[in-house]
Structure formats: C-alpha cells, structure tokens
C-alpha cells in the first residue's frame, strides 16, 4: 500500500552512534505516522473503529490549541467508544509517540498530539478513499515537478525512478493475479483498472523528462520503462477479461451467471418463489382424454410381446343401428310373401315351371334370387331341392333350366 | 372496482384447478359442481356443447404441454384401475385405493426396473394430483380420483373401460376378491 511512499530505509550495516540516532529518528517518524493504524506497539489494527478513535482524538487536540487536553477531556471526546477500547488506544498512541505529554516530566496530566500522526492519518484516509491509484497520480505529478526543479540531483531522480518502477512492478503483479482469479474478485477490484491509460502517459512523460535531463540514468530508466509497459499489458489483459465476462451488454453491474447458478442451487424455496412475486400464471392444466390414456398405455413398454389389436375406432362405437334389424324383419316378411305366392297354398312347386312362366331373364333372375334367399334364411321354413335333370332351351329365356322343387319344410 | 364473482371464480378455477366450495354455494355460470359422497363439492370448468379440451386437436391447436405425457397417462391408468372398480358406473367419485397398489399395477404394466418405475410413478402421481386429476393423501398413503374425472363425457369412456379390464389386477383387490 505504501511501497511507493516510504523513503528508503537506512542501511542495516550502520555502525556509528550517529547512524543509530538517524535510524531512530526515522523510526520515530514511521511510528508517529502509522500510530493511528497500530493495534498495539507491534501490529496493525483489525477494526476500523480503532482508527476512528484516533481520528476523533486528533481532531479534539487540533481544537484544543496549545493547552492540549487532559485525560478526562480526552475520555469525554471519545465518550461514544467503550472505555477499554479508548484506554487501549490511548496507551498505544502514547507508546508510539502520537500523543505525548506537553512537558516530558512525570505526573504530567496534559497531552498534545503529534503533527506527523495527523499527516499520516490524512494519507491513510486518502488511500482508503481512492486506493493506491490516485496516490500514484499524485506521486507522478510530484515527481514531474521535482524533475523540473533545478536543485534536484541525479541521485534523487534515480531513487524516485526506482521507487516508481518498483511500484509499477508490484501493481502489474497484482493485476496478473487478479486476471487469473475468479471473475467476482476481478469485478470487485475493477476500479483499479480505470484510468490506467492516463497513468501510463504520465509515467512515460516523467521517464522522458528524467532521461533528457540525466542521460546517464538510462539503466534506471530502462527498468522504469519496462515496468510501465508490464503494467500496461497486465491492465489491458485484466480489462479484456472483465469485458468478456460482461458479455455483449457491457454492463459490469449485471450479476455473472455463476452467481445466478449459485443462487438457484442454494436459495430456500421461499426465496426462489419470491423472484416470481407479482407474476400471474395462467397455465391451463393438462387434459387427459380417455382415448389418450388408452393410446398411452397401448404405446407404452410391455412385459410381453405386443399382440396386434383389431382395428378399433378411438371414438365410441354406437353399436348396431336400430333400422338394420327393422329392415331385416321387412325383408323376411317380403320373402315369406313371395314364397307363399309362389306356392299358391301348396307345399311344393317345380322351379323350372316357375322360371319358364316368367318369360324374361331379369324377372326370372329376381324370382330365383328371392327363392334362394328364402332357402338360405334360417328362420323361413322353405327349401330348394334339386334333381340331376337339366333341360336346354335354345332361343328361350332362360336358355337352360335345371329341374328342382321349391318346397315348404314340414313341421 | 367490482368484479363479477362468476368471472372471478372462473379465473380462480383456471389458475388453481378444481377448487373446493361450500356445499350450499351455487356454481357460477360456466362452471359445474362435482359432489363427493363425503359432501365436499368441487367447482369444475364446464365447456359448451359437451366439448372437452380434446377439441383443440381437431382445430390443430397445441394443447397445454406437459412433460412425458405418455408416462403420466400410464400412471393415471394404473390409478384408475385401482380406484374405478365398478366399471359400469361413472369413474367419479370412485373409491379410495392405496398408493402402493397403484404403483404395483403400474410396475406390472410395463417392463424395467421396478424400484425406478415406482419412484417415477410416485412423481407422476404427485403431478396428476397437482392438476386435479387425482387426490393424493401421502400421509395416509391413499389415492382417489380427482374431481376433473367428473368432467369426462360419459360416451367417451367405453374404450377406457375396455382398457381397464385388460390391465393387471391391483394386489390387495385380488386378495379381497377371493
């Protein structure tokens, strides 16, 4: 977070007392700067509220002026926070030098706040608000100013360029990691990608300015250039992945399909149903026609081989119609009348005589058909009995006659 | 805004399927009552001229779609075999049968893994109950015909009767008849 903002730390090989003093002074500045963020003297806060306590205190000190504040006043200012939290914060802030006695002597009850801590907190707040990117903009702008400053030395410029190159390297590593991470994470971090073109342009301008003024720094500038390009590549790739996932809508606020799937799998029945609140469903229920049920059963898989069913209408069969039997009765009566007329009250009549009496073939054919029907009908007591005799009659109609008798069946 | 109660009742029947009403409530226009022996009364949609939704087919209009209609109807036939025991009368209201018996008939009707068929069959029984063709009481393990079967026209039932005579006997009934 603060890789680019920290000055280079003192060399660890320092041996003289002066060096130790210098190192201690720098450490003191560090401590005051980040006192607001310290949970205890050894670690960073794990609750944002703790930072709020520090900020409230520092604001109160600014209002109090040169007199400073006493312990009771400080407690009053921080009355919103629990007592133990306040005491803890006060102890840490005092330990790190952010709040110190007005005069360094025992029994001192009035305190003043360190100017460095406020600046540090401002920086921290700014970083919280708009992230490392806008800080990069500020740093680049400051560095640009420095480069044009006539008092600037080549060494300082090289240090600045190295710091920027390191920041860009770390930044692009972070972006590459994001590009390979889940799309949700990438979406969350997307603001880091915005405006990267402008940063690259600024960095390139700065790089050009340094190189023009101190041509001997070409090695450092090459490093910086490579870091800038690496950052540009990484940010372009991450942006491409982001737009790919957004699909054709280009709407980054739409939920990704994974989120929908997770919701559908994990939501309770009520939450799922709530999605459709306010919709009216008007789906008619399926209809099962009896004939459709029959068809479905007959087409279903069977235990035995299917037997071919006789062809059957799927519509109901009305059975025999009424007038069929009525017509049948009429036909029987007519046959009986014809037979009685032919027999003329007797029991037996010769067929060949009957047929030769009629004279023409159509009439004798009709009569013969009626007699045959009477013979074949099971309910009528008449029969045709044939003999072996056959008489040809050339020129007459019928042209031949076989001899037989139409007779009443006795009984 | 006042809505004609008849229109409201028709809309409710269309969305919810057959709805139970009080025994004394009149049936609005376009709806008929199907009375159970227990006295419960259901409202059913009634179509003019004795037509049924099967008429849609004649006009080549797609009927309401359903998943695996063949299987659902085979399960329905099995349930009918158990509940509609007196084939000379109308199917509704029929008699109460055990779900297990209906599933047994269904597994005997086709071939395949009996356990799997029973599970699929139970799902289809539930879907049929959802649309009012069956009344399912899963805690008691019983199934009855739904009020919708009362809407079948009487003259369309002969082929269904023939079919049900050919289906395998429900197990408990076979035991009771002997």
**Order of the strands making up the biggest sheet of chain A:** 3-5-4
> Secondary-structure element sequence of chain A?
HEEHEHHEEHHHHHHHHHEHHEE
Count, helices of chain A? 15
Class based on secondary structure composition and strand pairing of chain A: mainly alpha
Portion of residues within helices of chain B: 40-55%
Organism (chain B): Actinomadura alba
Protein name (chain B): Transcriptional regulator
Organism (chain A): Actinomadura alba
Region (Disordered) (chain A): 296-323
Describe the structure.
The complex is a heterodimer of chains A (411) and B (178). With 411 residues, chain A is mostly helical. Chain A has 15 helices and eight strands. Chain A has helices at 17-33, 48-64, 71-77, 83-95, 115-148, 154-180, 183-188, 196-213, 218-246, 257-266, 269-274, 290-299, 322-343, 351-358, 361-376; strands spanning 38-40, 43-44, 69-70, 99-101, 110-113, 348-350, 382-392, 400-408. In chain A, strand 1 and strand 2 (43-44) form a beta hairpin. In chain A, helix 1 packs across helix 5, helix 6 (154-180) packs parallel to helix 9 and helix 14 (351-358) runs antiparallel to helix 15 (361-376). Chain B folds into two domains: 5-47, no CATH class; 69-177, Arc Repressor Mutant, subunit A, CATH 1.10.10. Chain B contains seven helices and six strands, in the order H-E-E-E-H-H-E-H-H-E-E-H-H. In chain B, the strands form two sheets. Chain B has a three-stranded antiparallel β-sheet, with helices on one face. In chain B, strands 4-6-5 form a three-stranded antiparallel β-sheet. Residues 174-178 of chain B have low confidence and may be disordered. Chain A binds chain B through residues 280-294, 296-303, 312, 314-317, and chain B through 14-15, 17, 52-54, 63-66, 69-74, 76-77, 80, 108-112, 131-133, 148, 152, 155-160, 162-163, 167.
């Amino acid at each position: 977070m603060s890789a680019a903002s920290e000055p280079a730390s003192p060399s660890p090989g320092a041996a003289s007392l002066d060096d130790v003093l210098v190192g201690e002074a720098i450490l003191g500045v560090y401590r005051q700067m980040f006192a607001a963020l310290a949970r205890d003297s050894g670690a960073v806060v794990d609750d944002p509220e703790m930072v709020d306590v520090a900020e409230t205190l520092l604001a109160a000190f600014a209002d109090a002026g040169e007199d400073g504040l006493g312990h009771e006043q400080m407690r009053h200012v921080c009355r919103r926070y629990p007592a133990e939290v306040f005491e803890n914060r006060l102890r840490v802030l005092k330990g790190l030098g952010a709040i110190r006695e007005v005069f360094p002597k025992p029994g001192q009850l009035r305190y003043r706040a360190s100017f460095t801590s406020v600046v540090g907190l401002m920086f921290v707040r700014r970083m919280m608000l708009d992230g490392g990117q806008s800080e990069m903009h500020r740093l680049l702008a400051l560095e640009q100013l420095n480069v044009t400053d006539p008092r600037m030395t080549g060494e300082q410029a090289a240090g600045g360029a190295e710091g920027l190159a390191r920041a860009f390297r770390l930044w692009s590593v972070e972006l590459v990691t994001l590009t390979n991470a889940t799309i949700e994470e990438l979406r969350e971090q997307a603001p880091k990608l915005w405006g990267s073109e402008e940063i690259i342009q600024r960095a390139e301008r700065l790089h050009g300015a340094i190189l023009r003024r101190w041509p001997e720094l070409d090695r450092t500038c090459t490093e910086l250039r490579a870091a800038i390009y690496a950052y540009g590549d990484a940010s372009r790739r991450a942006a491409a992945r982001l737009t790919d996932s957004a699909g054709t809508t280009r709407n980054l606020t739409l939920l990704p399909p994974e989120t929908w799937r997770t919701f559908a799998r994990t939501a309770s029945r009520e939450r799922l149903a709530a999605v459709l609140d306010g919709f009216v469903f008007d789906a008619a229920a399926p209809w099962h026609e009896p004939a459709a049920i029959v068809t479905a059963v007959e087409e279903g898989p069977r235990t035995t081989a299917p037997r071919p069913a006789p062809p059957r209408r799927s519509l109901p069969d009305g059975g025999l119609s009424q007038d069929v039997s009525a017509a049948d009765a009429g036909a029987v009566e007519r046959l009986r009348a014809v037979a009685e007329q032919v027999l003329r009250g007797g029991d037996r009549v010769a067929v060949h005589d009957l047929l030769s009496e009629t004279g023409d073939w159509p009439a004798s054919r009709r009569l013969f058909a009626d007699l045959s029907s009477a013979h074949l009908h099971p309910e009528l007591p008449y029969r045709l009995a044939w003999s072996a005799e056959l008489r040809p009659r050339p020129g007459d109609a019928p042209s031949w006659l076989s001899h037989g008798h139409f007779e009443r069946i006795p009984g | 805004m006042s809505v004609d109660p008849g229109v409201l009742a028709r809309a409710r029947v269309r969305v919810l399927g057959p709805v139970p009403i009080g025994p004394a409530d009149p049936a609005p226009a376009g709806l008929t009552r199907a009375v159970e022996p227990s006295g419960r009364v259901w409202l059913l949609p009634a179509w003019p001229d004795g037509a049924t939704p099967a008429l849609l087919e004649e006009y080549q209009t797609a009927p309401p779609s359903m998943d695996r209609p063949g299987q659902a109807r085979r399960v329905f036939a099995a349930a009918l075999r158990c509940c509609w025991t007196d084939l000379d009368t109308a199917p509704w209201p029929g008699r109460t049968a055990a779900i297990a018996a209906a599933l047994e008939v269904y597994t005997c009707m086709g071939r395949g893994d009996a356990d799997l068929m029973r599970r699929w069959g139970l799902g289809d029984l539930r879907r049929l109950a959802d649309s009012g063709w069956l009344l399912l009481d899963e805690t008691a393990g019983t199934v009855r015909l739904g009020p919708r079967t009362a809407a079948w026209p009487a003259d369309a039932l002969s082929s269904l009767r023939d079919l049900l005579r050919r289906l395998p006997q429900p197990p408990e009934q076979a035991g009771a008849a002997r």
